[in-house]
Amino acid sequence: LEIITLHYEANAYDLALKYIEQSEKLSKNIKFDKGLAQTLYLKALIYSKKEEHEKAVGYYTESKRLYTVFNDTLNIAKINSKLGVTKIKAGDYKAGIIDALSGIQQLENKKLDHDLAYAYRNLENVYQYTNALDDAIVYYLKGLEKDKTLADTNGIIISSKNLGDLYSKKQEFKEAVNYYTSALEFVKRTDTTLRAAILPKLGGAYVKTKRYALARRTLKEGEKLNRSIKNDLGILISLNNLGTLNYDTNNYEAA
Questions:
Q1: How many alpha carbons lie under 13 Å from residue 56 in its C-beta half-sphere?
Q2: Angle, to 10 degrees, between the axis of helix 2-9 and the axis of helix 13-29?
Q3: pTM score above 0.85
Q4: CA end-to-end distance (rounded Å), the chain
Q5: What is the pLDDT of residues 193-236, one digit of tens each?
Q6: Which of 23, 144, 153, 248 could disulfide-link 159, Cβ–Cβ 3.0 to 4.6 Å?
């Protein structure tokens, strides 16, 4: 199982599946059901990553059935949170939400911060995907608190940036500015990619809050960074927001 996990973490999914088939066959032959439950769980994780969601649902469900026999409530909680999100991606929204929320409640009861941070992020992505922005914000905020508790810098950056995106969608640009700037506080000056992802959106939020001088500096820096890494989307966002800025400030020739 350790070899499978290493290949999974290295994103070598097809190679991991080859080892899983061997492990699954061996576990069945020697009737090692606990090993089989873990193997099926890993198999579900991989198919989920490969976006073969119906297969993933089947393997999560079978793994959960085995863990239920052992009354292993910890692993059942972990599976429920992932199973719920996978069901939603497979098209079964109603059942998926029930499983996901059940898993989160179980993880909260057990105070499993690492698993909760992951579960919150999964659910918040689902809510954002379905445009349930207020629900997404609730779970992003919960996730951000867990990220801070765990001192997870990358998690703090991702959660803060995503909250900025959500508040921008809701046209609440002052809140968006707060979360984008909070994200930048944790980004190293040398991390061009992350700064390039945040600055054009922060600059756009500055435009909407009429902080024009700050918006121009931020957008120019964002455009420069995105050009340096040849990120066409980042360049486009920067230029579009600069166009809006020039229009709002009556600089029509530049717009």
A1: 24
A2: 160
A3: no
A4: 58
A5: 999 999 999 999 999 999 999 999 999 999 999 999 999 999 99
A6: 144
